[in-house]
Amino acid sequence: MTQHLFSGLKVIDCASWVAGPAAATILSDFGADVIKLEPPGGDPWRNSTPMPGKKTDYYWQHTSRNKRSLALDLKAEEGLAVLLRLIDAADVFVTNYPLPVRERLKIADRHLLSRNPRLIYASLTAYGEHGDEAGKTGFDVTAYWARTGLMDLVRATPETEPARSAPAMGDHPSAVALYAAIV
Q: Strand pairing of 33-38 and 67-71?
């Protein structure tokens, strides 16, 4: 068996869409064992529109390669119990769920680190962990592309409307930053 940089590292990917899961994917590229947790209906990114001419969603495959997937209802007591058993053996927990959702699901850092203090709790939020906007949701098009001013900077002319980003244009650089923070 070939050994990779992160062989033996156990990662729980409890994130949705792109930025959090893509950070876990980079870990998997280097050999980490990543379990992707999804709600029973699937991660919304899995159910996004496939590329023209493709039967499967390339975007999902790109962000979720090398992972095992587990459908788990974290709103149910039984689902949370399964997650907690996984946490006991995990090295890294990746999430980008909004802070209020983490509290409701009992997966905030205070819940999981009290159970496994050696766990790396990798958190990604749209507007930070503290302050007036900490609980707000955001996607790359709003938090990364619009709020930073990039949307305005790439207008064809000053008279045209602000440009919209391609899917996950801000998510992927954010994922690389989260990966670097984990490492």
A: parallel
pTM: 0.92
Instruction: Please answer whether residues 67 and 38 qualify as being in contact, where contact means their C-beta atoms are separated by less than 8 angstroms.
Output: no
CA distance 183 to 24: 11
Write the secondary structure of 79-133 as one string of H (helix), E (strand) and C (coil).
Answer: HHHHHHHHHHHCCEEEECCCHHHHHHHCCCHHHHHCCCCCCEEEECCCCCCCCCC
**10-13, strands of its sheet edge to edge:** 67-71, 33-38, 10-13, 92-95, 120-123
Mind listing the pLDDT tens digit for each residue in 85-115? 999 999 999 999 999 999 999 999 999 999 9
- Report residue 50's pLDDT band, with 50, 70 and 90 as the boundaries: low
Q: Tens of pLDDT along 121-148?
A: 999 999 999 999 998 988 888 888 888 8
Determine the Cα–Cα distance for residues 161 and 33; give it in Å rounded to an integer: 44
User: Which structure tokens are listed for 161?
Assistant: 């409307």
Distance CA 138, CA 126 (A): 5
Could you give the CA distance from residue 171 to residue 48 in angstroms, rounded to a whole number?
15
Strand partners, 10: 33
Known catalytic residues are: 171
